[in-house]
Amino acid sequence: MAESPSAVDVRAQQCAEVTLRPATVDDIPALRALGEAVVPPTYGPIDAAYAQRMLDEWWTAERFADTLPRVRMLVAERDGQVVAMSSFGRLSASHRDFPHVTGDREVMWKLYVHPDHHGLGIGSRLLAEVESMTEGDELWLEVVDGNVRAYDFYVSRGFREVERVTDREWPDDIWLRKPLGGAR
Ligand SMILES: CC(C)(COP(=O)(O)OP(=O)(O)OC[C@H]1O[C@@H](n2cnc3c(N)ncnc32)[C@H](O)[C@@H]1OP(=O)(O)O)[C@@H](O)C(=O)NCCC(=O)NCCS
Question: b or e along 141-163 (b: 16 or more beta carbons within 10 Å of the residue's beta carbon)?
Answer without folding.
Answer: bbbbbbbeebbebbeeebbeeee
